[in-house]
């Protein structure tokens, strides 16, 4: 009996060891089988990232057609991917493609590309993708501006504000601030174009001030300075001349020569009788603040925010 028990224990011990070895072998086989899949996934993402980066460089060099050709690979191959990282690269690729099409003066196709990006990824929970969607919307507004389509430009600003105004993300909020400022400036230009209709002019300028009041809350010093400068201009055109100097002074102190030249340029668009007086005020205030103002390169007052019309890799904000 004892001898039988020893043999029985040895048998069961051996069987357990055998089963354990089979299990370990199965695990190793599974890991080996899974490793290429993980590796392939990483390689796919890496390749997509490299293509988008290459396209950015091609766009910087204005090699639009070459950029589009390689961007199409990313969009076509991964456009239906559910992987958040690949979705981000596809969104970047679409943004770059829209920019390249704009560079080729293919405005309709550029707008179509931006719209597809917005529709496809507009509901994404990925903050980086949200920023890319916002960039596409802002690029649309700039395209409409280039096309002299003020109605659709203003509509796009309203869409940006509606979509992003409640966001607590700083980068998304910057788009809202820029939209408010550009919307306000657009209303100022409309008011100048309807100058002979006093009621319409006053209504447009009042709407402009409402938008600019929001823009002046911007954390970006450039956007805030533009909003303050535009506020001064709108008040002057409304006949509230005694209220124009304070915001204009603050704006020039903040941003220096580029804002001075931008404001001067604004008065030359759809010039009206009141512009001469504003130019005189602008020169006077500039002389007062010039020693204190930061010396910066001249930029247009309503310029596109730096890197805005590019890829999310910068975003571009």
Outline the secondary-structure elements.
Layout: H1 2-60, H2 64-78, H3 84-103, H4 107-121, H5 127-146, H6 150-164, H7 170-193, H8 198-215, H9 221-237, H10 245-255, H11 257-266, H12 274-289
Helix pairs in contact: 1-2, 1-3, 2-3, 3-4, 3-5, 4-5, 5-6, 5-7, 6-7, 7-8, 7-9, 8-9, 9-10, 10-12
Task: Describe the protein's architecture and organization.
This protein is mostly helical. It folds into 2 domains: 43-146, Serine Threonine Protein Phosphatase 5, Tetratricopeptide repeat, CATH 1.25.40; 149-302, no CATH class. It contains 12 helices and no strands. α5 (127-146) packs antiparallel against α6 and α7 (170-193) packs parallel to α9 (221-237). The longest helix has 59 residues, at 2-60. The chain is elongated. The model is unreliable at 1-22, 28-36 and 295-317 (pLDDT under 50).
